[in-house]
Amino acid sequence: MSAEADSPQPGSTVGLRPPAAIGMSVTHRRYVPYSHAHYGGNLVEGAYALGLFGDVATELAIRTDGDESLLAGYDSIEMLAPLQAGDIVEASATLTRVGRRSRAVAFEARVVCRSAPERGPSAADVLDPPIVITRATGTVVIP
Fold it and tell me: Any bridge partners for residue 109, and if so which?
């Protein structure tokens, strides 16, 4: 097989990505199932947001560097408000610094919808503005 056969076709975007750009952002949303509640009042552990941060950091690294990377550590973590089962939470990762092999990333998790059981078993509200539950900064390393 020739090298040409393995190359993307003209006009294809397969394998192409923009250079790592400060300010680039990735956001995921997820429903938090009741099976994830660990505490009274259907509270979910704060580390749940950190798992989401790992997911958005991975996509950000794939988009900027073509590699899943390694979230090497957090410089700061602020748990600002509770996460509850039944919430819809969104997590964002924003590139704030580009080094030779490291990337600084700012993370934020927000509750965008919350159940409203006082109105009925399946009632819920869209939160405007969303509730910021967790903020963090960390470092991603590209091999």
Answer: 91, 134
